């Protein structure tokens, strides 16, 4: 099983990247994945040039990580009630060649009580041509600076978000298994259906 986690903040040392690293560790510690099976694509530390850039920056590396993933976790901070532009830019690079019919769990990240807008924005737009399949479960990490910092939860909010994360990851891994044969059975080469409607 191979999972790619995309941290969609353009800030280096973002809280979104912190959550991505926490999820990676959870997959290793609680779900028995090995280190090589979980990669983090941090758009703050390795920014993609605004598409279409003169060069593609780290895209060549990301492309390989995404292509071998069986499932994705897409994390986006809420900025001015929107998904951070870095994640929308990422979806201009990403295509069905890497992502088609792979399950993905969304996560909205907020330092306050926001975090829902990036979820609804990405559910509405992002998947049409790349055919990424968002699962019904998503994560909204509110008060992000106060949670997922220590190996053990520090309070009730921290405990609750970790329980929700574990529940969602269990669901995501089941979708990842179930969609493997579906992916193999779908013909993605028909030119008249190259893009979604
Ligand atoms: C330009 C900007 C706009 C923001 N707007 C919102 C917002 O609308 N709602 C919200 O909950 N948090 C907002 N935040 C705060 C983020 O929730 C906070 O920075 C959080 O740490 C996630 O961002 P990060 O992953 O880049 O650290 C904003 C932050 C920035 C930099």
For the structure shown, list the relevant keywords.
single chain, 197 residues, alpha/beta, Rossmann fold, 7-stranded mixed beta sheet, 6 helices, 40% helix, globular, binds flavin mononucleotide
Q: How is this structure best described in words?
A:
With 197 residues, this protein is an alpha/beta fold. The protein has a single domain, classed as Flavodoxin domain (Rossmann fold). Helix content is 40%, strand content 17%. It has helices spanning 15-31, 59-67, 85-93, 96-99, 116-124, 156-185, and strands at residues 3-7, 38-42, 71-79, 82-83, 103-109, 133-134, 139-141. A hairpin with a 2-residue loop joins β3 (71-79) and β4. The protein starts with a strand and ends in a 12-residue tail after the last helix. The structure holds flavin mononucleotide. Flavin mononucleotide (FMN) binds at residues 9, 11, 14-16, 77-81, 109-112, 114, 144.
Name the CATH architecture. Answer: 3-Layer(aba) Sandwich
Name the CATH homologous superfamily: Flavodoxin domain
Distance between the termini: 31 Å
* Spans where pLDDT lies below 50 across 5 or more residues: none
For the record, what CATH class applies?
A: Alpha Beta
Q: What is the chain-wise order of helices and strands?
A: EHEHEEHHEHEEH
Could you give a short account of the major beta sheet?
Answer: 7 strands, mixed
CATH topology, which one?
Rossmann fold
Q: How many individual helices?
A: 6
Using only C-alpha atoms, the radius of gyration works out to: 16 Å
Oligomeric composition of the shown chains: single chain
Q: Report the helical percentage.
A: 25-40%
Question: How much β-strand is present in the residues?
Answer: 15-25%
Tell me how many strands there are: 7
- Secondary-structure-derived class: alpha/beta
